[in-house]
Amino acid sequence: MKSMNELNVPVPTKRSLVVRNNKEVTKEQRETALKETEYSMFSFPADMLILDFLSDSGSSSMTDLQWASLFHGDESYGRNKGYYVLLEAVRDIFERGNEPKKSINLILSGETNVKKLMEELYLKSHEGGFVNGGIHQLARPNAFLVPQGRCAEHLLFSTIAPILKERDPNNAYYIPNNGHFDTTEANIAANGMCPVNLFSANLFEDFPSDQMDVKNPFKGNMDSKELINCIEDKGVESIPLIYLTITNNTAAGQPVSLKNIKAISKIANSYNIPLFFDACRFAENAFFIKAFEEGYSNHSILEIVKEMFSYVDGFTISFKKDGLANIGGGLFFRDRGIFYEKFSNNGNIGTKLKEKQILTFGNDSYGGLSGRAIMSIAVGLYEVVKEQYLAERIRQVREFALKLSQKRVPVILPAGGHAVYINVAKFFEGTDMKIDDFRGVGFTIELLKHYGIRACELGPFAFEWDKKTPEQRKGILNLVRFAIPRNVYDSSHIDYAVAAITELYHNREKIPKVEVSRGANLRLRHFQSGLKPIYTK
Ligand code: F0G
């Protein structure tokens, strides 16, 4: 008799106990709604969809342990108990590797020993890591809760911009990244600095679909030679920070290897420039390292995460990613690390960040989040580093990409961690498509209209090709993204999406060009401008 793993079908890893039924919506009703919402994917009513691949952010299902934790949520205005639990969870996940303390269990189990609670949670002091505790968090704050990732980006860049300006009002500042997410790019630009994308040179290299289970070329890496060129060209003083996004959402959700993290950290250290992670999807990135990077197969996810974070000086994170929670974000930097040293010469950078946090997002112990949300994040941090969960998650994304490629639909291979990306230039090969006719957007409009499936263009429209210089255009890829919410869809959803996308691929010459009918010059326009499809066939 074969063992369960020899059956050649994935072994189920979970059961769903809540159901949301889809509505029966007609094509005509979707057409009306599309017209009324100016063909913007962001404005289409979600309740009228069959499948929603707009984002994996905040759209994942919580586990039963997370739902249960909501009852422990403490909505106090000052120092709710979840605040302490979350800070401890951050230390556990990012700094303690295989030795998490799990002080969260004191709260979840209703511990009544007040002395123990005081010693292990409420008055515990820590220093030297990403999360100071007790008096040190008061005197030298380095952990900041905010409502979501972009708030952390805003907090960081709007606080350092005036410091840099004061230092040298005439200098231009550059922030290199292996791939800036759109909000990161916009927050940097809105604060008068220049975002630079240093994609890995192998990003568009072909990859055989049947090799996805056995190897991975880590196409999300930063091009380290380009980084050195950039620093030498612009000058060390013009690079306030280097950023690595794990996984690299803008570069097709591809992972970054530990080898690359180490190499970039070495370069950053040699120039004394702080290195930060955009840590959205850190757990999925860690899984790729375990599965495919030499020397890591016997390491636990927690050990790998600990090593990854040992090379950076700070990170911004959206807790909406990695299936962690439905809302939340944070900014963390190493106590008295390079960032602290570099930006604290006019006072304490932590105090400046805290002032802005309180001014904009609420006081430091809730940062614009409900006490219930804080508990779900703390529990979620432990849930998303579970290997069985991650293996199934990555398997499903891979299944989607594999099925599309078997139908010859051009997708970026290997599949990344959270989404499947269509290579738009290849998709439209043989048609009269031009880069600036936003045909990728036309594809998303048709997919929604005919099949009730929502996806998102991340290409010349989203990244504003028409407004950029030839040099800046090099940082724009032409992709349509299907981001997969975690623990929401099963193989029947994937099969429906594959059938619909394949049908459109066969009819690609009928897909319309798209014009921006309103708000072409708005910042982050893909969230808010109006569109118009131009049908010629
Ligand atoms: N960084 C990356 C790499 C992201 O993917 C996102 C969001 C953010 C920062 C900002 O975080 O949404 O919590 O403010 N990405 C979502 C997406 C929206 O659909 O890819 P946020």
What is the overall silhouette? globular
Oligomeric form: single chain
| CATH architectural designation of the domain at 20-49 and 387-534 | Alpha-Beta Complex
Q: Specify the structural class.
A: alpha/beta
Beta-strand portion reads: 5-15%
Low-pLDDT residue spans: none
Count of alpha and pi helical runs: 20
Report Rg.
23 Å
Q: What's the CATH H-level homologous superfamily of the domain at 20-49 and 387-534?
A: Aspartate Aminotransferase, domain 1
What's the structural blueprint in terms of helices and strands?
Blueprint (H helix, E strand, L loop, with lengths): L26 H10 L14 E2 L11 H6 L11 H15 L8 H5 L5 H9 L12 H5 L3 E4 L2 H19 L6 E4 L4 H9 L3 E4 L26 H11 L7 E4 L12 H13 L4 E4 L3 H11 L8 H10 L3 E5 L10 E5 L4 H6 L5 H13 L9 H13 L3 H20 L12 E5 H4 L11 H13 L1 E2 L1 E3 L11 H4 L5 E5 L7 H16 L6 E6 L11 E5 L3
Parallel strand pairs: 1-10, 3-4, 5-6, 6-7
Antiparallel strand pairs: 2-8, 7-8, 9-12, 11-12, 13-14
Helix pairs in contact: 1-18, 3-15, 7-8, 7-14, 11-12, 16-20, 18-20
Bound molecules: ligand F0G.
Features:
537 residues; Aspartate Aminotransferase, domain 1; 5-stranded mixed beta sheet; 3-stranded antiparallel beta sheet; 20 helices; 39% helix
